[in-house]
Amino acid sequence: MHDPTTQSIVLTSLETRQVRVGVWAGFGALATYLANAFLPLPPFLETTFFLLMGPCVVAAFVGIYPFLNRPRPTVSALMSVVFGVIGGATRMMFASVQLNNLEYIRGYMEGAEPAVEETWRLIFRGVFTVQNGLNWVSDFFVDVAAFLIAVVMWRHPAFGRWFALFTTVTIAPHLLLKSITFPRPPAEAGLFDAGPLVGLWFLVMTIQIARWVGFRGSPGRCTPGD
After folding, report:
1. Could you count the other beta carbons within 10 Å of the beta carbon of residue 129?
2. Cβ–Cβ contacts within 10 Å for residue 3, how many?
3. How far apart, in whole angstroms, are the C-alpha atoms of residue 163 and residue 157?
């Protein structure tokens, strides 16, 4: 039986451009995540990056679909994109809800009487559970998308079994911890946030796709289809 991991990846020029957009969007999602986590950004940039991560994730999953769907179409590749898009869209919902709560409720608390301020503080704590739920949904869909991509990787020419195992090992702790402590976040329940492991997987996958698809002036390892 012919081993699909030895086959070439054939992409049309349009598909190549689509995958490259997905790669850049993937790097953009990682950049916004790291910038918000580690850099002292001015409020405007902090808000912008926080909101843009979700759309970047959506564009990344849609962009890399032709690459994942080679050398033969699979249901796993298609479903991974569907789950990834839902995860990215929900991520933006989570960010929007959190920013609105912070802006409006803190505004209501400023200058209020102590009793009124305490009431708003309790409301503030209550509505934050909504964004926690949205964050869990976003993480769940992205994690499932990653597991589906691991299935694709197993017999994919650009990845293979080691990449599939790496994906499983890095994603499983995140989904497991968030599921065990749901509805509380793992860090709030006395465990640790395994989100950086998901970011590591996303970075490794994006770099590997970038190596294969290349960029302007660097054709990569894919075979032109037109």
Report:
1. 11
2. 8
3. 11
